[in-house]
Amino acid sequence: MHNFIKVKIEGKNINNYLKWLIKNKISIHKLKKDGKNILYIVIDSKEYSNLKKYSQNYQINILKYYGTRKYLNFIKKNIIIFISMIISIIVIFIMSKMIFSIDIVYNDQEIVKLLNKELSNHNIKKYKFKKNYDELEKIKKDILDNNKEKLEWLEIVESGTKYIVKLVERKKETEQKKYGYRSIIASKSAIITSIKSFEGEKVKEINDYVKKGDVIISGILEKPTGEFIYKNAVGKVYGEVWYNLDIDYPLYYKEEYVTGNTKKGYVLNFLNKRIPLFGYSSYHNFQKNDNIVFESNIIPVNLVREKQYETIIKEEIYMVETATNQAIKYAKEKLLKNNNKIVEIKSVVVLDKKVKESTISVKLFVSVVEDISKIVEIDIYN
How many CB atoms lie within 10 A of CB 180? Predict the structure, then answer.
């Protein structure tokens, strides 16, 4: 590819210079005269050195480059910018291939600690290069093989410069009590709402009232001949169960939130007086941490570096009806939290309520649907 240049030639008798160019067979691609003393020509860049041979009385300047030379000169003039761009691209490329954080999506800190150690052993940690797909698959397999008793499934997902680690913990199979033959009885008094019987003989029906200990699904079957057959009763029984609850709930509610805003300053404490220094001012509501800078053993004075955390205080005074509703809500949450056999809270009836100075005492009658199944072993020798 030819590289051309546009040249400005200036001097007296410019026609003589033009005649010299033609005589020396210098190929001119474009030509333009500007008056008697200025000549513009476009020539091959290789011819530029020949122009100097007849330039004692003429001023020659390159005005413009064409072709690849144009771009090379542009790069040369902006070499620092281009080098900076190249370095930046290389740095960004390298950083995009690195790990800057690892998020393990699990609540059990013991499992998280175990996984962090396993990942570190396989060189998956902050500021290390990412692994390719095949390497990640091999690492996942190694970790699962090394922790068969603790991990069921593991996934390592790349998200930008972060690895997100998801897992399923292998649940230890609890040793279940082995029964010979068994029946299912009521664990507490209830009205039966549902019976799912897969093995054994139902001796109670839906809407029957049962007392604690009553057999609902029997593992003893009697033939017409009077002979008994023993089985393992299998099933699930749900019943309506009742609870009486006494709940005390405050009529005054106060909660303090930290906003995230902080400020630091120095405070002089003297004779139980707090004196902020250097224009340091306090938030309207705040929590604080103090670091003692100076303290006197002679007089009651000290200088502390204080950090304040701004807080917002939410206060509410409940009306009796609102406090009652809050007490009912609290009672429901407490029941469900403390008894994992409850599947539904059917109704709540307020039996009595008394307002004290700052609280309301509420007596509640709560009806729930609960798993009342209880397995008992059959003693066939008695």
Answer: 11
Collapsed DSSP state (helix, strand, coil) of residue 297: coil
Cα separation, 179 vs 51, in Å, equals 112
Is the full-model pTM beyond 0.85? Answer: no
Within 10 angstroms of residue 21's Cβ, the number of other Cβ atoms is: 20
67, part of any domain:
yes
Task: Tell me the C-alpha distance between 297 and 289, whole Å.
Answer: 22
Which pair of tokens denotes residue 218?
């029997």
Provide the residue range defining the domain that includes 141.
Answer: 101-169
pLDDT digits (tens, 9 = 90+) for 172-224: 654 444 546 899 999 999 999 999 888 888 999 999 999 999 999 998 887 77
Q: What is the C-alpha to C-alpha distance for residues 232 and 234, in angstroms, rounded to an integer?
A: 6
| Tens-digit pLDDT profile for residues 2-33 | 688 888 888 887 888 888 888 888 888 888 88
Count of CB atoms situated within 10 Å of the CB of 192: 20
Nearest-CA neighbor of 214 among 42, 373, 22?
Answer: 373
In a domain, 270, yes or no: yes
Total number of domains constituting the chain: 5
Is residue 9 within 8 Å of residue 62, measured between CB atoms? no
Answer yes or no: are the C-beta atoms of 124 and 117 closer than 8 Å: no
Residue 121: φ, ψ to 5°: -65, -25
C-alpha–C-alpha distance, residues 146 and 121, integer Å: 12
Specify the CATH number for the domain of residue 158.
Answer: 3.10.20
293 domain-assigned: yes
- Using an 8 Å Cβ cutoff, are 41 and 30 in contact? yes
Q: Which amino acid is at 8?
A: K
